[in-house]
Amino acid sequence: MQEPQRNLNDDWEGLDPTQPRTGSPTMLYAGIGIVVLFGLIVCVVAGYFVWSQFRERTTVDEEPAIVPPTAVLEDVPTATSAIAPTSTLPATTVPPQTPLGDGAVEASFTNTPPTIDGTLGDWPGAIAASSNNRVYNVASWNGTADCTAVWQLSWDNGNLYIAVTVTDDTHVQTASGNQIFRGDSVDMQFDTNRDADFGNGLSPDDYQITLSPGDFAGSSPSAFRYQGTASGAILDAPGGNIVTVAAQQTATGYMLEAAIPWSDLSLTPSQGLTIGLALNANDNDTGGTAVQEVMMSHMPNRTLTDPTTWGTLTLK
After folding, report:
1. d(C-alpha 186, C-alpha 182), whole Å
2. CA torsion sign, 267 to 272 to 277 to 280?
3. Does residue 14 surpass a pLDDT of 90?
4. Residue 205 in contact with residue 197, Cβ under 8 Å?
5. Which of 110, 125, 308, 314 could form an S-S bond across to 154 if both were Cys, CB 3.0 to 4.6 Å?
6. Residue 189 pLDDT more than 50?
7. pTM more than 0.90
8. In DSSP terms, which residues pair with 188 in a beta bridge?
9. Contacts 24+ apart (CB under 8 A), 89-94
10. β-strands 222-228, 206-212: how paired?
11. Under a CB-based contact definition with an 8 Å cutoff, are residues 304 and 312 in contact?
12. Which class is domain 97-315?
């Protein structure tokens, strides 16, 4: 028996013709668009919220950026920085120390100054130097070499102290004042600025102090001070002459003590100070005269106006 043929339009019979068909593509696309739009809105809002929170945290916690200086900063010395040398200290202005050479004499510091009375019992036993080199004689000298001198030196902040033991068989001293070198006497020549102007000419920092024992009769011990000039001469020094001198005659000559103020040499003493020095003894053996017949020195080539021929004195 044959099955009756089905009419496809029968499925739609009885339905509301205004109801849309569920399979329409327009409605599907519209729904998808709405979902996508809503998702975008949600993402934007969430992203803004997250960004705002992150920005707030980084703004509060972030340390300020360090900006490097645009110019080189000057090095400011601290309290431990080296002090700049003054005009008296730079190495370029300090002359090299002149070698001591021959004739180096030392003076020891003393806490107990000797009594200046012409007796040498309160002096230490060390011998500083001996004047036994003949460096001058007059043409009429008879050749008798009978004069020598042994020196001892000490110092303190006020004075340079001198003790001299002179051997001389005939004592003659008839002069006074700036002429006492023409009789029996001793003298000391000082270059007080040796390192700065060491040269073969005299200058105002060079001094000579002559010490006379007197004649042990009517004339008393005395001292006289001379000073170099800028022209190389040696003349009487102004002022000064406040040296204390005492002497005693002995069977073989005489003993002499002196205290020379550092102010007479325009010096401030200090341990280690070295200056130029020549130690000399003058001899006159002709009674009734004022003639420097012979000079003996601790320096074999000593000359009056050439400090390079003198020795040295160092304060210990």
Report:
1. 10
2. positive
3. no
4. yes
5. 110
6. yes
7. no
8. 209, 279
9. none
10. antiparallel
11. no
12. mainly beta
